[in-house]
Structure formats: structure tokens, C-alpha cells
Design brief:
Number of domains: 1
Order of helices and strands: HHHHHHHH
Largest sheet: none
Length: 204
């Protein structure tokens, strides 16, 4: 996988970094924990500019975040509550849960977006409630840019500094990413199994 990604980045340059980070956010095939350190390593070899690598990675990630923001915006609070009322077990939500989540995001939206962009898996998911809650797009882009820019800079910087040892970054971060995904899937399965219909879901 490393050789293939390296070859793709070397051949396609900044556009390759942009497209890989976009794909990682829309349908995550390759984690950013591999893409950005590798791009930083490529920059350390003099084949790319380090700062343009960060810019390309951040831009691709942001475009993916905007995609999911508009998915949430299109879905909307009313439609999500209707979905929760009809298919509560599978979305693991009842309408009251949606109201509480919307209220929480309304109070912590900016910090939720900023810190969410630093957490594997959550990086993609945090864009959906932002869209549902109607967070202004300029504010969403500003906080997403800060979080995403910090994340891509840290990863690319690690690859740049480690150079030929950049695989160590993946060795440390891949288990973290895997653990987060396992926790999210486990949490979802637990919610499905323990979900109870009742008074809280009476509103339809």
C-alpha cells in the first residue's frame, strides 16, 4: 500500500494529495494518517513543497467536510426527527434525542467542529450535525479550517521530520484510528441491541 500511495503522490503531486484527502473524507478508503505523513516525506525528498502539501491536504479535507455539511443541511432537523420516529432502532435515536443533540450542538458547535476535526472517524461525522443545526457556512469553514489545518500540519510535519522512517507514524496512529472505528461500531451495535421503544418515541 505504501508503495502505491507513494507512486500516486509522486506522479500526481499536489492534486494527488488533494484527491486522496477528499476521498478520505467522503468515502474513507485510506486514512489521512497515511496520506499526509507520506506527502510530508515526499516533500522532504524535495519532490514537493511542504507548505503546498499542507494546503492541498487541507483543501481536499475541507471539500469533503463541506459535502457532509450539505448532506446534514439537506436532511434537516424536521426530517431527521421524522426518520428517528419511523426507524429509531436503526438510527439509534428517538425524536427527543435529536432535540437534545441539536441543543447540545447549538451550545458547543464551534468547539465541537474544531476538536472533532482532530479525531479519526469523528472528523467526517461532525460535519453532519453542523449542517443539521444550521451552523453558518462561514463559521463552519473557519473552525473546520483551523482543526483540519492543524491536523494536516502535524501529520505532514511528522512525515517530513522522520523522512525515511515515516512509516513509524502509521505504526503509531493506525492502531488509534482502528480503535476509534471499533469503538464507534461497537457503540452503534450496543445502541441497536439495547434500544427501547416507548413513551419517548410516542411523537410521530
Amino acid at each position: 500500500m505504501f508503495d502505491r500511495i507513494t507512486g500516486f503522490v509522486v506522479r500526481s503531486g499536489y492534486s494527488g494529495v488533494f484527491l486522496l484527502m477528499l476521498a478520505e473524507n467522503v468515502v474513507p478508503p485510506i486514512p489521512s494518517e497515511l496520506i499526509m505523513p507520506l506527502a510530508g516525506f515526499t516533500a522532504a525528498r524535495g519532490q514537493l513543497n511542504f507548505f503546498l502539501v499542507i494546503l492541498a491536504g487541507t483543501a481536499g479535507s475541507l471539500l469533503g467536510a463541506v459535502f457532509w455539511y450539505y448532506v446534514g443541511k439537506r436532511l434537516g432537523l424536521k426530517r431527521l426527527k421524522h426518520l428517528a420516529a419511523r426507524h429509531g432502532r436503526w438510527v439509534t435515536l428517538c425524536p427527543e434525542d435529536v432535540d437534545r443533540a441539536d441543543d447540545w450542538f447549538g451550545r458547543h458547535g464551534a468547539s465541537a467542529v474544531f476538536f472533532g476535526r482532530l479525531v479519526p472517524t469523528v472528523r467526517t461525522l461532525i460535519s453532519v450535525p453542523a449542517g443539521i443545526a444550521g451552523m453558518p457556512l462561514p463559521s463552519f469553514l473557519a473552525w473546520s479550517s483551523l482543526g483540519t489545518g492543524l491536523w494536516t500540519t502535524l501529520l505532514a510535519g511528522a512525515g517530513y521530520l522522520l523522512q525515511s522512517q515515516y512509516e513509524r507514524v502509521a505504526d503509531y496512529l493506525n492502531p488509534v484510528s482502528t480503535a476509534v472505528v471499533i469503538l464507534v461500531v461497537g457503540w452503534y451495535l450496543y445502541r441497536v441491541v439495547t434500544f427501547r421503544t416507548g413513551g419517548r418515541q410516542a411523537a410521530r
